[in-house]
Amino acid sequence: MNKRLIITIPHYNNPDGLKRTIKSINEEFKIDIVITDDGSSNKFNEKDIRSSYKNNGDIFFQYLDKNCGVGIAANKCLDFVKKDSYKYVARLDAGDICHKNKFIKQLNFLENNKEIKLVGTWARVIDTSGVFLFDIKHPTTHNQIKKYMYLNSMFVNPTVVFETSVLKAVTQYPIQYKHAAQDYAFFFKVIRQFKSANLPEILLDYIIDQDSISTKKRKLQVKNRIKIIIENFKPGFYPVYGLIRSLVLYFFSRSSTTSIKKRLN
Length: 265
Description:
Low-confidence stretches: none
Order of helices and strands: EHEHEHEEHEEHEHEHHHH
Strand content: 15-25%
CATH superfamily: Spore Coat Polysaccharide Biosynthesis Protein SpsA, Chain A
Number of domains: 1
Number of helices: 10
CATH architecture: Alpha-Beta Complex
Distance between the termini: 45 Å
């Protein structure tokens, strides 16, 4: 019989954030977790991580000998998942906070909507001090998601849950984007073959951290986003607009775009 859910967490130099994330998982059913450390110099203690987890699921640890990039660490997590018989797989990032019953709501949605294979949620964006910045409310239907994906990813990566059957067709995060935007490339591949959705409910606190990839590797992330849009390009308003938009955003820092979003929210 299939195990129900496993959460994948790539980790790099954020043990305190990892513990907060593990502690925030609040569900009434068993959930396993696989954590891949990406060659951290600031390492976590396995015993501390296990003691932070209040669910009765298992935690598995994997280690890379050196820092290879979040895409490689995420793929190593997926390799672990493929070796077992889990029905669903989720993604979290160290530092982000799950709301109560996040995962059961997503699993119930997937089981009641068999045509949908991947589902995200809305998220609340806060800074490292816990100050609210803005909400992310992405489109909820597959057709809307496909249309607006050319503007940016229409999924908050650490909110996503999907059927492991997806991995038979989209086997991994594209390694050419291992340092930034690998999730965007992955989601583009998934929605071309499977239907998707977002739950119209805020079920995760997404932390904007000055040490995160989205901040420290901002230009690389946008540059990779441009490449991904070109890879998936087709004639139409949104592909053209999305490409122009990303070219403009290349010259803006993340703090600038965050400030704009905060004012508009």
